[in-house]
Amino acid sequence: xxxxxxxxxxxxxxxxxxxxxxxxxxxxxxxxxxxxxxxxxxxxxxxxxxxxxxxxxxxxxxxxxxxxxxxxxxxxxxxxxxxxxxxxxxxxxxxxxxxxxxxxxxxxxxxxxxxxxxxxxxxxxxxxxxxxxxxxxxxxxxxxxxxxxxxxxxxxxxxxxxxxxxxxxxxxxxxxxxxxxxxxxxxxxxxxxxxxxxxxxxxxxxxxxxxxxxxxxxxxxxxxxxxxxxxxxxxxxxxxxxxxxxxxxxxxxxxxxxxxxxxxxxxxxxxxxxxxxxxxxxxxxxxxxxxxxxxx
Length: 296
What we know:
It is a single chain. Helix 2 (22-38) runs antiparallel to helix 5 (66-79) and helix 5 (66-79) packs antiparallel against helix 12. Strands 1-2 form a two-stranded parallel ribbon. The two termini are 31 Å apart. The chain has helices spanning 2-14, 22-38, 40-49, 57-62, 66-79, 90-94, 99-128, 141-149, 151-155, 161-166, 169-198, 202-216, 219-226, 233-243, 245-248, 264-286; strands at residues 53-54, 133-134. By secondary structure, the chain is mostly helical. 70% of the residues lie in helices and 1% in strands. It has one domain. This is ABC-2 family transporter protein. The chain crosses the membrane at residues 21-39, 59-81, 102-128, 173-196, 208-228, 264-286. It comes from Blautia parvula.
């Protein structure tokens, strides 16, 4: 219990001045701008048909797209560019706790900060579209029009008939949030592990490379680069669905019992396995990590 108390105290210390940090404020302000720009397509559809949407649908359609998830997650690279967090008080804590406890506090700080960021994005998206939404847990007429008419494909709105037939809007939003959160955790924890192993600033490059890797493995990106026809894209979609972390983070990129894509549960399991691997790698690198406090 005393060890747990030390970790909790360290996490609380990391959050001191959280909302006074200019980098954090810029990240959340840019998130508001990003949500406003990305949700514009959804708003235009509702305005054009003069129909309403279920309250969860704007978030589902906006962040059911891999490119939008990528753009939102890139802001986390700015937000956590300073991990692992060091301050003049760090030696005081390190003299009273084990290194592994200090690292756990870093992971918990990142996990909580990322969860707050994803929840903020969800809240802002819902608020921006509230003029056209209703709270009932039933798919809207707007969703039906987009999904069944093929309009979603032309506008890049991932409204799926298969998803609508298998889950409720709030259930879909919950799974979309969980997938986005797991992807964001892997990105941020990768940055932390690389910074501990190779030194500061290297984590940012690792985060950018991880994002670029996911983007290049998007089925549409691969098909565009290779010039594939529609008939040839099926195998590419299946392959990318399993090896692209960005595809695992998007709800429409999963199977609904009709193909060989991963299920939401399988994607969650893969993300969790990667997180455990990152924790083990960071723990191993921590043994030779040199704490430097110059400049504080």
